[in-house]
Automatic annotation (TrEMBL):
Naturally occurring in which organism (per UniProt): Bombus vosnesenskii
Keyword Oxidoreductase: yes
Gene Ontology CC entries for this record: cytoplasm; nucleus
One Gene Ontology term from the biological process aspect of the record: oxidative RNA demethylation
Residue numbers binding Fe cation: 192, 194, 248
Source organism superkingdom: Eukaryota
Pfam entry (one): 2OG-FeII_Oxy_2
Name of the gene this protein is made from: LOC117234187
GO molecular-function term, one example from the UniProt record: oxidative RNA demethylase activity
Domain Fe2OG dioxygenase intervals: 174-300
Protein name per UniProt: Nucleic acid dioxygenase ALKBH1
Length: 308
């Protein structure tokens, strides 16, 4: 059962045995198939912080059809670009934050500037950012999207997911809603299904940065058994087809052994993904004890113009 596996991996005492956690750094071809032959490689989008598609490692889980895993396709500069975007730009208006309800930020303040401004308020505020929503804003209570709660999707987030969709041969994906979850080392995300979207035929893209997650994915009901897998910085999972409505959650965050945002790479593409060194110094301290997950969804059916 999903709940039992969640409890097992969440436990710190006793520490769970991680031998059954699917590790795509070391793929077991009894459990996964190579998905590379199914990729369409029309152009490489260096400007999105990605490596050329010909260098990607992509798998589909044999017992979870439709669950596609792309092993960190980002360059080192790309990882830094997206981590800084998530922390500096996506944590302010017009996007919605969990912090909005707590009135901790004055009108002229934003999370990034306060947190990295060396004040006592900043130290206290830093771990309090838990989520941000984009496009059609996720309503955590009703789980319903509404035409009256919608702002613009960040352009580069839409471009990135459209490029991923096109490469994986999903037709006409439109990024219309997104959630970023900001995890501390002791955070978890309870089991749930993502069913608020009118269009659950469209894939859902989930991109992870920072510390490693144990990601748990079960079946269509809570009673089904679950599989655990590691999601490391840069890894992307796509929940498509029959896997789109499966239960999933994050029972544990583990410290990363290697930090791909620090890898020294040849041919890195910094001319397209620009960020500045002083922002990176700040973002790097944050990500050393945090995980960020950006998940992007299509809401509407093809041709549907609004929810009204
Ligand atoms: O953090 C993750 O990997 C999963 C996030 C998620 O499932 C969600 O926000 O719906
Ligand atoms: Fe989810």
């Amino acid at each position: 059962m999903f709940k039992d596996s969640f409890k097992y991996y969440k436990s710190r005492k006793p520490c769970p045995d991680l031998k059954d956690v699917i590790d795509l750094n070391n793929p077991d071809y009894n459990k996964v198939t190579d998905f590379r032959k199914r990729l369409l490689d029309e152009q490489c989008e260096y400007e999105l912080g990605l490596r050329p598609v010909k260098d990607w490692e992509v798998f589909e889980l044999r017992n979870i059809p439709g669950l596609i895993f792309i092993k960190n396709p980002f360059t080192t500069y790309g990882q830094r670009y997206w981590i800084i975007k998530c922390l500096k730009e996506y944590s302010r208006e017009p996007h919605k934050l969990n912090l909005d309800a707590h009135n901790v930020l004055n009108k002229d303040e934003n999370w990034w500037d306060i947190c990295f401004g060396n004040s006592d308020k900043g130290k206290e505020l830093l771990p309090k950012l838990r989520w941000a929503t984009f496009g059609y804003h996720h309503n955590w209570d009703t789980k319903l999207y509404s035409e009256t709660s919608r702002t613009k999707m960040p352009t580069e987030m839409s471009l990135l997911t459209s490029f991923l969709a096109q490469t994986l041969d999903f037709k006409d994906f439109k990024a219309e809603a997104a959630i970023i979850n900001y995890y501390r080392m002791n955070s978890t995300l309870a089991g749930h299904t993502d069913h608020s979207e009118v269009n659950v035929e469209a894939p859902l893209f989930s991109i992870s940065f920072g510390q490693t997650a144990i990601f748990l994915i079960g079946g269509l009901t809570q009673e089904d058994a679950a599989n655990a897998m590691f999601l490391r910085s840069g890894d992307i999972i796509v929940m498509s087809g029959k896997s789109r409505l499966r239960y999933h959650g994050v029972p544990k965050i583990l410290p990363t052994i290697d930090a791909p945002w620090d890898d020294i790479e040849m041919n890195d593409n910094n001319q397209h993904c620009t960020w500045n060194e002083s922002d990176w110094i700040k973002a790097k301290t944050y990500i050393s004890e945090a995980r960020i997950n950006m998940n992007v969804r299509q809401v509407l059916k093809p041709g549907q113009l609004s929810l009204l």
